[in-house]
Amino acid sequence: AQRVTQPEKLLSVFKGAPVELKCNYSYSGSPELFWYVQYSRQRLQLLLRHISRESIKGFTADLNKGETSFHLKKPFAQEEDSAMYYCALSGNLGAGNMLTFGGGTRLMVKP
Amino acid sequence: DTEVTQTPKHLVMGMTNKKSLKCEQHMGHRAMYWYKQKAKKPPELMFVYSYEKLSINESVPSRFSPECPNSSLLNLHLHALQPEDSALYLCASSPGLAAPYEQYFGPGTRLTVT
Predict the structure, then answer these.
(1) Which residues of A touch B91 (CB under 8 A)?
(2) Nearest-CA neighbor of A107 among A83, A71, A88?
């Protein structure tokens, strides 16, 4: 079975502070991990995926297979980063690769 | 066109009504998905279509009936829904199922069952 856990429902930081949104997963195979973001009144969209190793909007995430984690980090939070963040795992559910979402973390960046 | 579109944006229906949700994409994607998202919760997978054939049904009640008339279009037919079915219904698409592709999401249809 595949499972994604985001331990914090809400994370509140001040503008300019570092941010870390935690994500842990369990999966017996080789996982593909994603971070999706949902800004207010906008559609759910991909922020980044581990295989591309990109930095998007200043966010990075490193897959740590030893700790089964894929935490999302940004050194200096901006107010426009306020949104709902979902960590997701793509694994084979027998009929193809399906996304399993974590419970989500709401990030609030205060001025 | 790199967007998934969904109509209607909002839908209010009674428990005896029959209605349909529509989803469209013109990115040439061959996999399409329906998700249900309750407030402050992650999306829950309902159905997956691959090459216009139903690939996964996540034990969804029969009052939800999906249909994929062609590779660009995905419908969700609703009949005899319950108030607890009120939610945001999201459609998504991806190039296929064989690899862990990014999924592209539509804006959703907000459904209220009265």
Answers:
(1) none
(2) A83
